[in-house]
């Protein structure tokens, strides 16, 4: 939720400059890789880019594909990625599942290409875990024109380049993002240096439950909470959720939960 994202203004501006620069309106496909440790806010930043007014005005369709559920390598994983894209593009499930013949992968890549052809689109591949040649160079620096069974050999063949679109990749594995969009297109997300931003995220999560709570107790623990978060937005949110629940129980519970989550 945009109102609960704090401390990312500068990084968001940099990402929007990378994603929505002049090139994406003049043909070609722009790639942006968002990399960093778990919990640092990669997905949150990608969501802000994905839902920004500039993205909504400029790109149609906009497709979000979460790869965290497909961490093991293999052809089935590739089909799941393509099936997710085709579902987002509005194809009926029955039609998608029928593409399971001898060259089902190639048929699905071709179908994605046909659905995106002539459109200026935005695709986010969130939480990429695979370092796999099939995902390589999705922005098409080394693309040739596929024929026949070659369609299934690379995801890049399903992504037309002529109208100017954007592909955003998030990953803890810098090599995975680099393989997909190139080293020069990476944005490295660092833990938040501003403790007040983590505190704001914590308080947003803490207040969301709207239960009677001992705010004084929480305020007295502010420094300890900020220190425990370590600059990680996800840690701040998790702690806020824990405190919102635990302060409905005896007050000592909150301190116990904090110690367990260090």
Summarize this structure as a short list of keywords or feature phrases.
single chain; 262 residues; alpha/beta; five-stranded parallel sheet; 5 strands; 45% helix; elongated
Blueprint of the fold:
Layout: H1 9-19, E1 29-35, H2 42-50, H3 53-58, E2 62-66, H4 75-88, H5 93-97, H6 104-116, E3 122-126, E4 165-171, H7 174-181, E5 186-188, H8 195-208, H9 215-220, H10 222-229, H11 233-246, H12 252-260
Parallel strand pairs: 1-4, 1-5, 2-3, 3-4
Explain this structure:
With 262 residues, the chain is of the alpha/beta class. Helices cover 45% and strands 10% of the residues. It contains twelve helices and five strands. A five-stranded parallel β-sheet has the order 2-3-4-1-5, with helices on both faces. The longest helix is centred in the N-terminal third of the chain and has 14 residues, at 75-88. The chain is elongated and about 65 Å long. The two termini are 26 Å apart.
**Global geometry:** elongated
What is the helix content?
A: 40-55%
Lateral strand order in the biggest sheet = 2-3-4-1-5
Mean pLDDT: 86
Query: Could you tell me the strand content as a percent range?
Result: 5-15%
């Amino acid at each position: 939720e945009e109102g609960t994202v704090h401390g990312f203004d500068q990084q968001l501006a940099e990402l929007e400059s990378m994603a929505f620069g002049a090139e994406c309106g003049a043909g070609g496909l722009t790639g942006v890789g968002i990399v960093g440790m778990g919990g640092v806010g990669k997905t949150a930043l990608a969501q802000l880019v994905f839902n920004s007014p500039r993205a909504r005005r400029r790109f149609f369709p906009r497709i979000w594909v979460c790869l965290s559920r497909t961490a093991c390598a293999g052809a089935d994983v590739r089909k799941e990625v393509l099936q997710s894209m085709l579902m987002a593009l509005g194809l009926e499930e029955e039609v998608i599942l029928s593409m399971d013949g001898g060259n089902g992968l190639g048929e699905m890549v071709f179908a994605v290409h046909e659905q995106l052809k002539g459109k200026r689109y935005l695709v986010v591949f969130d939480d990429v875990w695979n370092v796999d040649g099939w995902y390589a160079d999705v922005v098409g620096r080394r693309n040739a024109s596929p024929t026949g069974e070659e369609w299934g050999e690379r995801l890049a063949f399903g992504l037309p380049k002529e109208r100017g679109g954007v592909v955003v990749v998030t990953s803890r594995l810098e090599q995975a993002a680099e393989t997909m969009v190139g080293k020069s297109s990476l944005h490295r997300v660092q833990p938040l240096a501003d403790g007040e931003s983590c505190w704001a995220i914590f308080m947003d999560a803490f207040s969301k439950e709207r239960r009677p709570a001992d705010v004084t107790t929480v305020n007295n623990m502010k420094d300890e909470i900020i220190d425990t978060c370590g600059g990680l937005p996800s840690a701040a949110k998790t702690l806020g959720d824990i405190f919102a629940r635990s302060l409905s129980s005896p007050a000592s519970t909150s301190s116990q939960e904090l110690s367990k989550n260090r």
